TrEMBL record:
GO terms for cellular component: plasma membrane. PANTHER family: INNER MEMBRANE PROTEIN YGHQ, PST FAMILY PREDICTED COLANIC ACID TRANSPORTER. This is Polysaccharide biosynthesis protein. Pfam families: Polysacc_synt_3. The chain crosses the membrane at residues 21-41, 47-64, 100-123, 129-153, 165-185, 306-330, 342-365, 377-400, 406-426. InterPro entries: Poly_Biosynth_Transport (IPR050833). It is a multi-pass membrane protein. It comes from the Bacteria. It is found in: Cell membrane. The keyword Cell membrane applies. It comes from Zymomonas mobilis subsp. mobilis (strain ATCC 31821 / ZM4 / CP4). Coiled coil: none annotated.
């Protein structure tokens, strides 16, 4: 580690991850408290329905949104360092246009599906009007421009402050619901208001940062201007959009499938397990958020980005091993805080815990392939692994219930990372051939 810390970029990745982790830990604990409060105060069916409504909106947003933040960093990181603000502004305008179009489209699609097929995702008919209202969150949920801008300008400290807002408001809302004996609707309102407040604060921070750099005009949406100046941008955003759509199958869509097959109560138990696992994997998410902007500034022809990925992955994987041991030892007492009716979630979480180590150790692979211009390889890996995962999820859940869902998740994650690792290793051995494609993307 002492040798690794001599690498300035590695230190920057750790510093940015530290910014995000400093508040996310507090936010995770508050959010866990809100989740426990909802689990104990609501019936198993009501709690499961709350999770399904929230997951449905997240899932539809994830299926329809573009990864506009990745596009901003891919096409704007080097121009920003070189002082080419015109190109950066065009990338941001394009991202805003993508977010607005995909957000409205996702909201309309989500509401339409609910009107005809709410019961197929485990949402009862009596809860459909509430779920329809919740879908109005999709445009802000699926907007990634603010995150891309703040990462581009290095304001990870602002991202760290913002990410505590939503869990804090959820915690306050859950506490008020408990004090005044409020029911299901109050918890839905709490989740809704907390989400929209967090998203709006992120936009306010972004506007302020752009104004300080005299770049507020970059927020004017445009889908025509950027493609003329950013060769390959449409190809990149479509590939990342498809990859994001497939990625949504792992959590939101998977949860909806479980709810549709086993009912809202089982979906609630599954959601508890996956939420706690998502919280446990946050260290890798922090590292990824700091890793992606830095690696996009490096030359893929050199060994530096590849060694940086190896070091970061080893560090993250070691953390993952520790987290898995904590889950195996302390998972059952933690789940007991939700109440005895969710006890099955502890076994499910233990079954799924090895996926943590795999995901955390291999997180740099996807960013490496994007850097090297091999987004298609990521997409192919996602297609194969998602089809396999969904097939296994339906079959094993039908046969073994929730435990089958956990087994299929581990198998799918393992397959995904193997399929991504192969082109990454090939890319490293052939990195001297990547120069021409990278130059094309960096000259924009």
């Amino acid at each position: 580690m002492s040798g690794w810390l001599k690498d300035r970029v590695f230190r920057t990745v750790l510093k940015n991850a530290g910014y995000l982790g400093s508040t996310k830990l507090i936010g995770a604990l508050i959010g866990l408290g809100a989740l426990i409060g909802a689990g104990r105060m609501l019936t198993a069916v009501e709690f499961g329905t709350l999770m399904l409504i929230h997951t449905y909106a997240l899932g539809v947003g994830a299926l329809t949104k573009f990864q506009s933040w990745q596009m901003i960093l891919k096409f704007g990181a080097r121009p920003y360092e070189q002082g080419n603000r015109s190109i950066v502004a065009k990338a941001i305008r394009f991202a805003v246009g993508l977010d607005m179009a995909s957000g409205v489209f996702g909201m309309v699609v989500g509401m339409t599906i609910l009107c005809f097929a709410a019961s197929y995702v485990g949402i009862g008919q009596q809860y459909t009007p509430i779920a329809l209202l919740y879908c109005t969150l999709i445009p802000t949920m699926s907007s990634a421009t603010p995150t891309g801008v703040l990462r581009l300008v290095g304001r990870f400290d602002l991202l760290a402050k913002q990410q505590i807002i939503t869990p804090l408001l959820r915690g306050v809302g859950a506490l008020l619901s408990w004090i005044f004996g409020l029911g299901f609707v109050s918890f839905v309102a709490t989740w809704y208001l907390a989400d929209i407040a967090g998203d709006l604060v992120l936009w306010v921070m972004t506007i302020k940062e752009l104004r300080e750099r005299d770049m507020q005009s970059a927020l004017r949406p445009s889908l025509r201007e950027a493609p003329a100046s950013l060769p390959g941008v449409w190809n990149f955003v479509w590939l990342t959009n498809l990859n994001t759509t497939l990625d949504a199958c792992w959590s939101p869509v998977g949860n909806l499938i479980v709810g549709g097959m086993l009912g809202a109560a089982a979906a609630g138990r599954y959601k508890i397990a996956t939420t706690l696992l998502d919280s446990a994997i946050k260290p890798a998410n922090f590292l990824e958020k700091g890793f992606y902007p830095e690696i996009m500034r490096l030359d893929p022809k050199s060994r530096h980005p590849w060694y940086l990925a190896l070091r970061t992955g080893l560090l993250s994987g070691a953390i993952g091993l520790c987290v898995m041991l904590v889950i195996l030892i302390g998972g059952k007492p933690l789940i007991s805080l939700f109440g005895h009716k969710y006890a099955e979630a502890s076994t499910l979480m233990a079954i799924m815990s090895p996926a943590l180590v795999i995901s955390m150790a291999c997180f740099p692979l996807e960013s490496l392939l994007y850097m090297a211009g091999q987004a298609k390889a990521v997409l192919v890996a996602q297609i194969v692994s998602v089809i396999t995962y969904i097939t296994a999820l339906v079959c094993l859940t039908h046969t073994f219930g929730l435990h089958g869902a956990g087994i299929s998740y581990i198998f799918g994650v393992f397959l995904l990372n193997i399929l991504v690792m192969i082109p990454a290793l090939i890319g490293y051995t052939r990195r001297h051939l990547l120069e021409s494609e990278t130059v094309t993307n960096s000259e924009v």
